[in-house]
Write the structure tokens for this entry.
Amino acid sequence: MNSEFLVKFSYALEGSKSYHHIKRKVYEILEDHNYKNKKYFDIAMIVLVLFTVIAFLYEVKHKPPAIIVVIEDIAITIFILEWLGRLWVNGNMHNKVIKHYSQARFIDSKFKFRVVLWDIVKEKLDFIFSPMSIIDLLSILPYYRPLRILRIFMFFRLFKILRYTNSISQLATIFVERKFDFLTLLTLLTLFVFVVFAGASAIYVYEGHSNINDKIDNFFDAIYWAIITVATVGYGDISPVTVEGRVITIFLVCCSFIVLAFGNAIITSAMLHKLANMKESNSLKSISQLKKFHVICGFSKSAKVLCRELKKSNEPFIVIDKLPSADLNLQEDERGYKFIYGEASSPLLMERIFLQNRVKSLIAMSSNDATNTAIILNAKSIQPSLELISIVNITKNEKKLRLAGATKTIMINNLSAYIGAGYIKHPIAFEAIERLLIEDKKLIIETIEVKNSQYKQEMTIFELDFKRFKIILLGLSHHHEFVFNPKKDTIVKADDILIVAGYESSIKAFKLYFKYFGSKK
């Protein structure tokens, strides 16, 4: 009977949209660091934790006012509800029931309630005995005032702040991810304990007698002295008075150099590695507000020019590069570019950027063609329909980039040579065009897309009346076929792209007219 009810209840939960919606919202608030509103919850919880700790310190010498007791009761209630919420969103119990029930039906066997129950309990116990869950539970224990010994656990509430500061909590996972460093550090910690115990035992044997060193009354004093010595703190409150004790001190100090030096090196290396990953994660969060954007891979000299022009045009973009920290901060602060610190050729990074299908185009602008090829291949495998543009540093590599999936290649060196040749042949005409396009900020070249819903009948170039708006039609593109200076009787069709030049105000007015003109046809 219990099994039948459990299965029916599980299927009911699986089919309930409101249940999934509520659970998803609770998960986002408690666990999802990418959820935009989570920061408000985190700030509120940090304030609540700090208030309860300050109130506890106040109670040491003062009787707490009634309002503080009430607020502390409310805080404890919130902490309990928070812990229960985390316990709830940690896994899906009904999914396990459905999975076991489906498997039992598939092999025509009996549904075992105890097996499912143990599977669920095991999952929940894993959460309950996780480090952060234990901290949460210990921070709740001081609420039971009659057990005053438990009030020392009040300070565990400070560790709860780790939950609400993602950067600190990420640092806490350093050695979980780097198991080799963790095992090495564990070995050094074992060596540290051995050295401390050996030194404490030796000093206790030689100076533990009351008539030799009155500062070492018991073995705990010896342990305290050994730790202070190995840590090279040297308070001086306990000092050896015998030759043997001083030899032991020299031995401990020499050992401490080895243990502490290796330990510091491992911790520093692991932290630097983790900080690089955190910088990448934080950069990805910063682009979550962008709806449609371009991805520029590599911050080369050409990329800097492209970024400047895109910023002028108010085109959203991000740059992926592994710049030094000083350069990265300079570009972000002074120029306002959005950077992602990471390898542009990393498939994992590409997947995270393309996750919500908000990328308009990808431009590979590394000074190395092999890197550009890897970038194009990764992007093509993740999002085949994406427009992929790549610069070509060496002409012979252009074919390889095309085969990799680049929809457009730009040969930088050849382009510079063509521009130079054009200037030599027609210097006056070239200078005039350069002044118009570069020095005259109001003159622009724009593309106008013709959509199916934009007009009811076919129209010709002549009917569009470009002269009225003082706009020059440079050409027309139809399915990637470009027609320069099309004839007046050329028919404009759906999905055509008009390439025009003119002042920005004129082009804006023409777009409005074009939309109105098409709807009246």
Remarks:
- The first helix runs from residue 2 to 14.
